Amino acid sequence: MARMFRVLGFWTLVIALMAFAGDMNEMALLFFIQTVVFVLLGYLNFSEKTYLLMFWGYMFISFVGFTYWTVFVMGNPF
Hints:
By secondary structure, this protein is mainly α. The chain is 82% helix and 0% strand. Helix 1 runs antiparallel to helix 2. The longest helix is centred in the C-terminal third of the chain and has 26 residues, at 48-73. Keywords: Membrane, Transmembrane, Transmembrane helix.
């Protein structure tokens, strides 16, 4: 399970580099930070249950943040 967090770190790095190349600096910074966190967590060798709880916590926070951003910050397009 620790290896999967390092894999998540790799893919967030790929997304961050593509965002940086596309001149989306805020998104790139967000994904660079996620890359560092995922790689660091991948080397801490927690139990599988701990990794699953951290992943689902991450998913919950990201979905709530995405929903908040799209509803309240972006506003109504009409």
